[in-house]
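As a representative case, we now present a protein record of this kind.
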Amino acid sequence: MESFTPKDSDSHPPLIHPPYKSSITRSPTEEPIIVPQTITELTGPKFNPSILPEDSYDLTNNSRNSGEPIGERLIVAGRVLDENGVPISGVMVEIWQANSAGKYTDREDQHHAAVDPNFLGAGRTITDEDGWYRFITIRPGAYPWGNHANAWRPHHIHFSILGKNIMTRLVTQMYFEGDPLLPFDPIYNAAPDDARTRLIAAFSLDLTEQGFALGYRWDIVIRGPKATPFED
């Protein structure tokens, strides 16, 4: 049985962060109720790569209709780690994102930008024996979101990590180094100062494939004082 450390509140954004306006209305105002753990929370689920389509990790190929998706190809890869830096295998990693124009494949998205018929913007994979995940995707565009005057979300990719038990559930966002919109984004800035760097993917020449795509490295720590900030 795995051992667990308590969630370190210094690593994660507060439930209510007033500059992020919707956090005020969607976050609980009462103290959380502790639900006793059962064997289910400690032993499942278990994932096998065979349950996924062969190209589920490749967002440039898993939803093509009439050709290549538009935009700059990227490779995003890293390891999923526990609080001791030990890689975790068999973890389900899911991502979703806007296309290169900053548009989601969602009827609720009202941004006046083009829909890419060859890019769904979603994929999933399972970490290997050394805890590695890898995606091929398109650099997501920035988009306006109405939180405040002239508000634009930085380029980002949403991540959902579901480990070997419910205690390893993590939902977060990955950003790109050097993005000029980061200082103005209340979601990114809701994370504690010393934890924000854990949300930034670094360019990696080792992951870059010649003539094909730039590579970015982003490791994910699922719990403990150095955990990747949770998107509450």
Remarks:
- The longest strand covers residues 200-209.
